[in-house]
Design brief:
The complex is a heterodimer of chains A (57) and B (912). With 57 residues, chain A is mainly alpha-helical. Chain A is built from two helices and no strands. The chains are: A mainly alpha (57), B mainly alpha (912). At the A-B interface, helix 1 and helix 2 of A face helix 7, helix 8, helix 9 and helix 17 of B.
């Protein structure tokens, strides 16, 4: 049981780190969501700001 | 954004009925509804918690009402926090975040309102009412009854449609980590909930406990944690306007968490009868989980780098920061707790209660509060009072810190007492003041929640609030991510990675299935084989009355203070008897092992206490145990301890069945004769250094029975030492014996009214050291006198010294005439010998079947007044009848003279 867990987690971690280290495109790809999330957040804020402006007018 | 991804978004928007560039709608009315529901219910749930805590110091408080008894309030406290508060808070966040993260609206507004009604009016409200009315399930984090569980599962299925479907068309590169946590949490909870709530009803005892253990941890790991971490990962960048430190690390953390969390469950049953391989697997997974959380928290805290000013000024972000730090502390604490050397000491103590409060308040609730405060400022038409919000934070932070510190120390104190030879009740006495502080620490927490609510309904309206919030974000902050790389799908040429989320999702379900296979199904099969091999063929099942009593026992939450598992630890075995084997639980649907000990373990209750004692204890525990904090159960009686209802009798029957199968089956005698001990017990006991050095003082399967090996306790012969012993014995007597024997030892304690036979009047007889030693060691069968062998030998010796001091032997009266003594001897042989034996040693032909056993007058000399009284009236509750109608005054006088002359004379073969 212990061996299974240790081997499985170690294999997952090793595989992920290997891909991250050997494949620059992967690094860009995997980091993309953190930027798209902020863009989306800003779009919503802009919409709310527009609504607020019209409300204030 | 690249051209291809722009086109893709456009096509998706067309399919969803949105025009290009149009943002999906957000269901603000549903957010408001869930926020209000969460805050209303957190106040109710926290109030339940304060009532529960206060009952440790004031057990009679609201104790006369079944609906407000400790057990039912405790169920409603934890289920309220779990479903009502956190559930509504998470749902509010989903309605806010899912449209933003998926760029699509939630599936349906109508479905949303239906889900709101299901959650609050088919789960929370009926759950509370049913539990209070006595319909519950005595399983940790699964206390709402099965009918409510069905609606919980329905709600999670609806959540899949409402919140997961909008993500289905998204590519992996579009899915921010919060989305992963939301999807994972909903899917996996939907899978885990039925297993944790329904399976233990179908799989008994130790095998069911394996499943329960998984759910205990899945409830935190697959429901609370993913949603709280999703909020943290959302609020941090949304407030600081900077991307998180590493999305790669966040995804590594996500998958390691989802892999290791389900594997942790069995660490709640370390040193139990569950196969050791499963226990150790869970321990290793717990350590890995701690490392994974370090990764997650490091990533989140690095995401705040350079924003310490924002974190200190922005109260919602400060809530989240506090929650993230608590997450780290509580997770590392959890990893350490799972380790066997720590677990054996702190498990079942208040340390664990502190741990769970740190998880549910410090981690989950603080982040949920931060999430609500964050989104509230972005909802049109709402109010926001930053000053009150700031007060709310500090009240909650101070109250929680005090509570955790207090409970942690209390747990260490309890562990210390439990590992000593002190009686169990000493651990209750030792932490009384800590329980009071814990109750008081709940007040600022409750006030903090109240102010949090107030901060959302007072203060300036939205436009000013948003202006205030955005004014702190500089244009440089916004520009920081404008030039960042766009979602570059073309950078990943292989189809494999484009569909990585599908593969990863499949892997996640696989992890989940794996956890049930390796920690529940395989150990369950092993247990089933062991039960088949070891269970005696004559093992009795519960009678109908005992079965009903078991249901009532579960209904009143007894299993939340009394475990029914003696662990394979020397400290447990010394105190409670033989470790609980899996076969003993083969008829337990559902298992009642418990994860907390406020009162002692009850696995070996059979023959330990008399019926009168049990009933008196249930009616009012403090009648027999002065410092008990157990709640009274007057609704199981019709006005007095002597008048139990059928339910009271059922509970009594169940309590007296605990350990019966072990005792009557001869299991231990066979095991000892064949020297066959399981490898499980060898492994666990051998790992405890003290196991060899301190063998159990409670012989296996003999806890309530007579043991001729009672040590002979002689008080000190030196007068000064004797005075000291008497003084110490007096203190022990006052703390442990006066409830029955009364403050003067006259047998007139508060409990005496409902006990038969009455507690002994210790001033009305002279006892030999041998007699007192035997009684203190073995108790008196057929009476309410329990064995006190858990006391250290010096304490028992002090009690012997004190009890002997209660009766000052009178100067011998005029020498009894030989003729009278001869006459008395003849009468004794004729009328008393069949029970007391012809020589008065309590060993007559019928003595063996009498309980309590007849008095051995060589070891106990009653005063003449007491002997006369007994001959006149008999001893109610024993086989001793009144003799005043059968014997004349002269005959009885001769008998009194005779029995009082026997003390200290040689005996042929004494009984007890």
């Amino acid at each position: 049981m212990i061996d299974l867990i240790v081997i499985a987690i170690s294999a997952i971690m090793f595989a992920l780190l290997l891909v991250w280290w050997r494949w620059p495109a992967f690094r860009v790809w995997i980091e993309a969501p953190k930027y798209s999330m902020l863009r989306q957040e800003r779009r919503f804020d802009d919409r709310n700001a527009a609504r607020r402006t019209s409300f204030d007018l | 954004m690249t051209i291809s991804s722009e086109q893709s978004v456009y096509r998706e928007q067309q399919r969803n009925g949105q025009s290009a560039g149009e943002l999906p709608s957000v269901e603000y009315s549903l957010i408001r509804a869930h926020v209000y529901a969460s805050l209303a219910t957190v106040l109710i749930s926290a109030s339940f918690g304060i009532l529960v805590a206060s009952k440790f110091n004031f057990p009679e408080f609201l104790g006369g009402h079944a609906w407000l008894t400790w057990g039912r309030l405790r169920y409603n406290h934890t289920q309220g926090i779990f479903f009502a508060w956190l559930g509504n808070a998470f749902l509010a966040f989903f309605y806010y975040a899912v449209p933003r993260l998926s760029n699509r609206p939630v599936l349906s507004r109508k479905l949303g309102w239906f889900l709101f009604c299901i959650w609050n009016f088919a789960v929370v409200l009926p759950g509370w009412v049913l539990v209070a009315a006595g319909f519950s399930q005595p399983l940790e984090w699964a206390e709402f009854p099965l009918v409510v569980d069905a609606f919980v599962v329905l709600a999670f299925i609806l959540m899949v449609f409402e919140f997961v479907l909008p993500f289905l068309r998204a590519r992996a590169s579009d899915l921010y980590v919060s989305a992963w946590y939301i999807i994972g949490g909903i899917i996996f909870t939907m899978l885990a909930y039925p297993v944790g709530n329904f399976v233990p009803e179908l799989v008994p005892g130790a095998r069911g406990a394996a499943f329960s253990g998984l759910w205990i941890h899945d409830a935190v790991g697959l429901y609370v944690t993913p949603f709280a971490v999703a909020i943290a990962y959302y609020v941090i960048p949304a407030t600081t306007r900077r991307p998180i430190y590493s999305h790669f690390l966040s995804m590594v953390g996500f998958w390691v968490l989802f892999f290791t969390y389900p594997l942790n469950g069995t660490h709640h049953y370390v040193y139990s009868a569950i196969p050791m391989a499963a226990q150790k697997g869970a321990i290793v997974a717990s350590v890995y989980l701690g490392m994974a959380v370090i990764l997650v928290v490091t990533n989140q805290l690095l995401s705040l780098r350079g924003n310490s000013g924002t974190a200190s000024k922005d109260v919602p972000l400060r809530f989240v920061w506090f929650g993230v730090v608590s997450y780290l502390v509580v997770s590392l604490q959890g990893s350490v707790q799972a380790l066997m050397p720590v677990n054996r000491f702190i498990h079942f103590t208040d340390w664990v209660i502190g741990h769970s409060h740190l998880a549910m308040i410090g981690f989950a609730s603080f982040i949920a509060l931060g999430g609500i405060a964050h989104l509230w400022q972005r909802i049109p038409g709402t109010r926001y009072n930053e000053r009150l919000m700031n007060w709310s934070f500090w009240l909650l932070a101070v109250g929680l810190t005090l509570m955790i510190t207090d409970l942690t120390i209390a747990g260490l104190v309890e562990g210390q007492v439990w590992n000593s030879s002190a009686p169990w009740i000493d651990s209750v006495r030792a932490v009384g003041s800590y329980w009071l502080v814990r109750t008081l620490s709940g007040l600022p927490i409750l006030a903090g929640f109240l102010l949090f609510w107030a901060s959302l309904v007072t203060g300036p309206r939205l436009s000013e609030a948003l202006t205030s919030a955005t004014s702190r974000v500089t244009s440089e902050d916004i520009a920081a991510f404008e030039d960042a790389p766009a979602a570059s799908h073309e950078l990943i040429p292989t189809r494999w990675l484009s569909n990585a989320h599908v593969i990863a999702f499949g892997a996640g379900v696989g992890f989940f299935a794996l956890s049930f296979l390796v920690l529940a199904i395989l150990p369950g099969k092993e247990l089933a084989d062991e039960i088949k091999r070891a269970a005696p063929v004559t093992m009795p099942t519960l009678t109908a009355s005992e079965q009903r009593g078991r249901v009532i026992y579960g209904r009143e939450g007894c299993a939340y203070c009394h475990t029914e598992q003696v662990r394979f630890l020397a400290a447990d075995v010394r105190r409670f008897g033989a470790p609980t084997e899996a076969w003993e639980t083969k008829y337990d649907y559902p298992q009642l092992w418990g994860t907390r000990r406020i009162g002692p373990d009850l696995s070996r209750e059979f023959n330990l206490h008399s019926q009168d004692w049990q009933l008196t204890h249930l009616f009012d525990p403090r009648l027999v145990v002065r410092d008990s904090v157990m709640p009274p159960y007057p609704w199981l009686f019709e006005g007095s301890a002597n008048q139990p209802t059928q339910e009271g009798l059922d509970v009594l029957a169940y309590l007296q069945s605990l350990g019966r199968a072990r005792e009557l089956s001869g299991f231990d005698r066979q095991a000892m004769a064949s020297n066959d001990t399981s490898s499980m017990s060898d492994m666990a006991m051998a790992s405890e250094p003290s196991a060899e050095a301190t063998p159990p003082t409670v012989p296996i399967a003999m806890i309530g029975g007579y043991s001729p090996s009672a040590p002979l306790l002689h008080p000190a012969s030196d007068p000064n030492d004797l005075r000291e012993e008497v003084s110490r014995g007096g203190i022990l007597f006052a703390a442990n014996c006066v409830s029955c024997h009364g403050p003067g030892g006259r047998g007139d304690g508060r409990a005496s009214a409902s006990l038969l036979p009455k507690p002994a009047n210790l001033t009305a007889a002279q006892f030999s050291d041998e007699r007192l030693s035997s009684v203190l060691w073995n108790g008196i069968s057929g009476s309410s006198m329990p064995p006190w062998r858990q006391f250290a030998a010096e304490d028992l010796r002090a009690l012997v010294a004190y009890i002997r001091s209660l009766n000052v032997p009178r100067a011998p009266s005029a020498a009894s005439e030989t003729a009278t003594l001869d006459q008395g001897k003849a009468f004794f042989a004729a009328f008393c010998g069949s029970c007391h034996g012809s020589s008065g040693a309590g060993n007559g032909p019928t003595a063996g079947v009498l309980a309590p056993p007849p008095t051995n007058f060589h070891l106990k000399r009653p005063t003449e007044e007491r002997a006369w009284e007994v001959l006149e009236n008999g001893v109610p509750g024993t086989a001793m009848p009144p003799w005043k109608d059968q014997l004349s005054d002269d005959q009885r006088h001769a008998l009194v003279e005779f029995v009082c002359s026997l003390y200290g004379t040689p005996q042929e073969n004494s009984g007890q």
